[in-house]
Amino acid sequence: MRKSPFGWIGVAGPRPPRLHDLRGGLFVVGDLFSASGGPVLEMGGRLERLKGLVASYWGRYVAIDLDGDGTLRAALRDPSGAAEVALWTSDSVQILSTGVPDWLMRAAPATVSVIWEGVPALLGNPLAGLTQPPLNGLTVLDAGEMIDLDTGHRSQVWRPVGDKASDIWDPVAAREGLRARVDACVDALAGDVTVPGAELSGGLDSAIVAVALGRHRPRVRLWLNAHSCRAETDERRYARAVAAHLDLPLTELQRLEQALEADVLDHTAGGVRPGFNGSDPVFDALVAEACRTRGIHGLFTGKGGDALFYQGGSGAIFADLWRAKGLAAIGSPVLAGVARWRRRSVWSVLAEAVTQQPPGPIPVDPGILADPVAAPVVHPWLQGGETLGPGKRLQLHALISNLAYATACRRTAAVDLIHPLMSQPLVEWAMRLPTPVLTGGVTDRHLARSAFADALPSEVVWRRSKGDYTATFEREAAASLPFLKAHLLDGLLAQHGIIDRGRTEALLDRDRLMWAGGSHHLSSAAMVESWLRRWAARGA
Q1: What are the residue boundaries of the structural domains of the chain, listed by start?
Q2: Average pLDDT, the chain
Q3: How far apart are CA 130 and CA 23, in angstroms?
Q4: Binning pLDDT at 50, 70 and 90, where does residue 358 land?
């Protein structure tokens, strides 16, 4: 804790963050690492100083700019979005917090109200919940955004799309740069954790993080694999292969199927935005308890790897090559590679690239919305994305969706969740790599696979399948129908006409869920409903 005559900075949690004094009133709370070899900060006004911070450092932090008397003048949320930043005023006291737990809202209440017109977008647009939430009286910063509290002016200091987007075409330089940055980011983050743990799901991304932990592996107290009893979800074979290859003591925990209840969703409802990080509450509770009982301070995950390494595969990959190389792209093996990969003709892939239309707004998924024509939400990271090819725009959308991993859930209350594959240096490097380089035109995450092929078993490196929990979620939703019917049909979403009662009732049917699916609409609505009830109660 740091005190001044006019305020204080306090830290708490399962792994209290560090306080870094960068002189001149600039403080950083969290993990901070030099990106340029030295503390080079721009001189001048607040915006210039915070831009210099982002250019010279990276990490998982909140930056605050204080006057000599300790008065808060500006704040910045770091580009990785690892911590939320919420600001409000309570009885003339200015509050900045990375969370909004009930005890804090009782001690320093905010005059907050729900903006009901903005709620439909939370259910219809995948990016809507990751920018300013529909709340009056609470200022929430986007990742890489700063606010000048004297003027109220907000500036996006950092975006993934820089001046050098998609400019590295040499696959050797791309592969070596990617490997070096993954190793450096994981190594730096692990050095600051007293008792680390790590997920080992059986997938490529968590396996890459396990490799990059390198010299820290003997200190890792928990190597965790959570699995279900269903064959399509059980990835122990691959997790065991990684553990054997790296000589790791693997802990296997079985995820049992459970019905939803109100108190389960309460753990995702107390944040500044709906806690989609806890969208699988059974897994969430299982991992939280494992970390708590073993005294884990920070849990490393492979989250973010799908977007960083480019999981998707479509004709958009060749469209990016066509956009960059023109007619010369026709002679590239990427054209035939993408056609084989997607099981399409070469001519259809070529035609799609030639006739590629400018990007439009992300379409709204009507689901159970009463009015599916919701206003499009534009995330600030999308600015500058208009210059990208269609494949890189898909990657940019996926990078934005990764910000959901910062939202509240049981795990965030029990342990510091560390997602190194969302680190600023890695995102900046990945945005410089064209999609044909990331995929080789032959398979998803091809560059990452080849970069770590010498360090992992081949059955994991070149694995094409992924664990699938879809059927599990449908069964759990079917078992939760009594709760879901009361929660949704008698809730705030229905009362305010945000969800269509008829469509919701039709979806709340066991046979339909089991045979046609749709549980994701119900689970999202249930989480938003719980979040709205918490904030409506706080406002009252």
Answers
A1: 2-156, 160-465, 470-539
A2: 89
A3: 32
A4: low
CA-to-CA distance for 350 and 52, rounded, in angstroms? 43
For strand 298-300 and strand 196-199, is the pairing parallel, antiparallel, or unpaired? parallel
pLDDT digits 0-9 by tens, 412-440: 999 999 999 999 999 999 999 999 999 99
Residue 26's contacts (CB-CB under 8 Å, 6 or more residues apart) are 41, 49, 53, 63, 64, 65, 66
Measured in whole angstroms, the distance separating CA 285 from the mean position of its chain's CA atoms is 19
Is 72:63 a contact under the CB 8 Å cutoff? no
Does position 359 have pLDDT exceeding 80, yes or no?
no
Average pLDDT over residues 55-59: 94
Q: Which residues, other chains included, contact 507 with Cβ-Cβ below 8 Å and sequence gap of 6+? A: 368, 513, 518, 521, 522
- b/e burial code for range 339-361 (CB count within 10 A of at least 16 → b): bebeeeeeeebbebbeebeeeee
Res 128: pLDDT: 83
Q: Assign residue 43 a region (left: φ > 0; alpha: ψ between -120 and 50; beta: otherwise).
A: beta
Q: Sign of the C-alpha dihedral, residues 64, 65, 67, 72? A: negative
Confidence of residue 341 (pLDDT cuts 50, 70, 90): confident
How much is the pLDDT for 457?
96
List, as own/partner pairs, every contact residues 185-189 make where C-beta atoms lie below 8 angstroms and the sequence separation is at least 24, other chains included.
Answer: 185/212, 185/420, 185/423, 185/425, 185/426, 186/212, 186/213, 186/214, 186/300, 186/420, 187/212, 187/213, 187/214, 187/215, 187/216, 188/33, 189/31, 189/60, 189/298, 189/300, 189/418, 189/420, 189/423
The string of DSSP codes covering 51-116 is HHHHHHEEEEEEEEEE-TT--EEEEEE-TT--S--EEEEETTEEEEES---HHHHHHS----EE-G
Phi then psi for residue 379, to 5 deg, are: -75, 140
423 SS3 class: coil
Question: Distance between CA atoms of 487 and 533, rounded to whole angstroms?
Answer: 11
Asked if the model's pLDDT at residue 1 lies above 50, the reply is no
Cβ atoms 428, 160 nearer than 8 A? yes
- C-alpha triplet 388, 118, 121: angle, nearest 5°: 50
Pair 517, 474: CB distance under 8 Å:
yes
The superfamily in CATH containing domain 160-465 is HUPs (3.40.50.620)
* Global pTM value: 0.94
